[in-house]
Request: fold
Amino acid sequence: MEIGHTWLSASVQRSSVNTEAKLLLLTHAFETMDAVRVQFTTDELNEKSRAAILRLGATQEDIVRHKRIMPDGRKCNSLRFSIIDTEWPEVKAGLEKRLKYQVCTPDQ
Reply:
């Protein structure tokens, strides 16, 4: 199972919005759908996405070389990350702890 792209306004990046959204999606995947693995993929050049995925508690697994050709002709390599079912309780606890300290207000 894969959780795809999340587009966030710059005003809520690094706020609780992404953490809470991913916690809800991951909880549904592991606790309702009984997933044994959830993966995330991002362009290797997208440092913000890579950092956000790592902050979730995911582990980088591999590089998918030349996954697609971008409009400018660049051959895009992707990084693949995952969280597996045995890691989920610890990942969930970490995300819940982070949410206690993050606040997102409408004017952020």
Remarks:
- The chain has a mean pLDDT of 91.
